[in-house]
Amino acid sequence: MKFFHAISRFSVAVGSLSGLATGIMMVVILVDVIGRAFFAAPLPLATEISVMLLIVKVFLGMAGAQATDSNFQVTVLTDQLSTRLRHFQRLLTLLIALLGISLITWFAAKYAISSTQKGEMSFGVHPWPIWPERIILAAGLVLLVVQLAVDLIGTMIWGEAKMKAGLPDHSGAI
Questions:
Q1: Adjacent-strand bridge partners of 172
Q2: Is the sign of the CA dihedral 15, 16, 22, 25 positive or negative?
Q3: Three-state DSSP class for 56?
Q4: SS3 state at 129
Q5: How far is the C-alpha of 67 from the C-alpha of 168, rounded, in Å?
Q6: Which among 61, 94, 136, 142 could disulfide-bond with 18, CB atoms 3.0 to 4.6 Å apart, if both were Cys?
Q7: In 10 A of CB 110, how many CB atoms?
Q8: CA-to-CA distance for 76 and 90, rounded, in angstroms?
Q9: Contact at 8 Å (CB) between 148 and 93?
Q10: pLDDT band at 163 (very low <50, low <70, confident <90, very high)
């Protein structure tokens, strides 16, 4: 079980980069707006940097959100289920999510490899490499797949409550 908790803690730690990316994105946009408004000099590459930070924010935060059960959930119907059916529903949804996200991850990883081999760049005033963004996206999805697998296996063996013990509770259930 310690191994499973270590993976979940790692997911949460990587997810913290998501918050850091948000802060940096705010600073980049603020500097760009001030430069445009007061000095008629926008920050070069502000849009490209913001897009990369947005990818970091979204894709590196997904596994941490899964680990802490922070994803938004509407539990009106599932709350009406018996404990046994709720457990089965949890396992089924984790399995479906694992299969679907694994497929998306496979294609994202192939695309990241292809993009990296080609040295894919954006077109604009300042060329900007896109391949690192593809790698970040694929890495975030890989972390999510690992976290979903940990949640599925752990829930099968120990149940949901024991799997989430010791992790921050940010449940978005209503």
A1: 72
A2: negative
A3: helix
A4: strand
A5: 9
A6: 61
A7: 11
A8: 14
A9: no
A10: low
DSSP 43: P
User: Tokens at residue 136, please?
Assistant: 């970040």
DSSP letter for 42, please. Answer: P
**What's the confidence (pLDDT) of residue 153?**
95
- What residue type is assigned to position 166 of the chain? G
Structure-token pair, residue 44? 């070069």
What's the CA gap between 44 and 49, in Å, rounded?
9
Helix ranges restricted to H, the chain: 2-39, 46-67, 83-118, 131-157, 160-164
Complete DSSP assignment for 64-84:
HHHHTT-SEE--TTGGGS-HH
The pLDDT score that the predictor gives to residue 8 is: 92
Residue with tokens 């209503």: 174
If one compares 105 and 161, the residue with the highest pLDDT of the two is 105
- CB-side neighbour CA atoms (13 Å) of 18: 17
CB neighbours of residue 164 within 10 Å: 20
pTM: 0.87
Q: Which amino acid, one-letter code, is at 98?
A: L
What secondary structure letter does DSSP report for 125? S
Token representation of residue 100? 């679907």
137-155 burial, b if ≥16 CB within 10 A, otherwise e? bbbbbbbbbbbbbbbbebb
